[in-house]
Design brief:
Blueprint (H helix, E strand, L loop, with lengths): L4 H6 L1 H26 L34 E6 L10 E6 L4 E7 L4 H13 L1 H13 L3 E3 L17 H4 L4 E6 L10 H11 L1 H11 L4
Antiparallel strand pairs: 1-2, 2-3, 3-5, 4-5
Helix pairs in contact: 2-6, 3-7, 4-7
């Protein structure tokens, strides 16, 4: 309703109290959760360069010039990662939807090829990981190619997965979860369910899990 710099600066204390401080506390608590699933993942409670994604929008190339995001985005990344394209767990909260995600969003071309090759060469491991996630209510998400990429068999059992440009699993969350202590156990369950998928992604990229 008031997505402009002057209004935000006048209400910065509200942002610090109602968004930033609880987000930092949440990340600190979730750090122990993600480390228990994989010691190579982190929850970093820093205002900049940590798990909390920037509130500032990149307005350079779009028609929408509003300066601020209207959601809270938190990503728990691998210890060796430094951007949002690396595999990680993600928690999203806004007034329209709340969801949890796991996987890799828009991986770089070299990493994308590695992930596709891993699907082609190790279909059983990927199929088991996907089946476990689907059984627990998660679904594949993100962009895909219409046809199999060059060099990949369109009749491969995982051809649909190989066509993906994003390797993501997501599930919607009840917004009420964010108001109580049930949030942490629910996220731990979701993260644990996607651990085999995350392990497969790390294996494809040569990263420890």
């Amino acid at each position: 309703m008031n997505n402009e710099r002057a209004w935000f600066e006048a209400h910065r204390d509200d942002y610090e109290k109602s968004v930033l401080t609880p987000a930092m506390a949440f990340i600190t608590e979730m750090d122990e959760v993600v480390r228990s699933i994989s010691p190579h993942y982190r929850g970093v409670a820093k205002k900049l360069g940590g798990s909390l994604m920037r509130i500032y929008r990149d307005t350079r190339f779009g028609h929408d010039k509003t300066p601020y995001k209207t959601n809270i985005g938190i990503q728990f990344r691998h210890e060796s990662a430094n951007d949002v394209h690396a595999p990680g767990w993600y928690v999203h909260l806004d007034l329209n939807e709340c969801f949890v995600g796991a996987g890799a969003w828009h991986p770089e071309p070299a990493d994308l090829l590695k992930i596709r090759l891993s699907h082609a060469e190790h279909p059983e491991a990927w199929s088991k990981a996907l089946a476990l996630a689907t059984k627990s209510g998660l679904r594949s998400a993100g962009e895909s190619l219409q046809k199999s990429p060059k060099g990949f068999d369109p009749a491969h059992p995982l051809a649909e997965e190989i066509r993906r440009k994003d390797f993501l699993l997501t599930a919607n969350l009840d917004p009420e979860l964010f108001l109580g202590r049930e949030l942490i156990p629910e996220l731990q369950k979701r993260f644990q369910t996607t651990a085999p998928y995350m392990a497969a992604l790390c294996g494809a990229l040569g990263a420890a899990f």
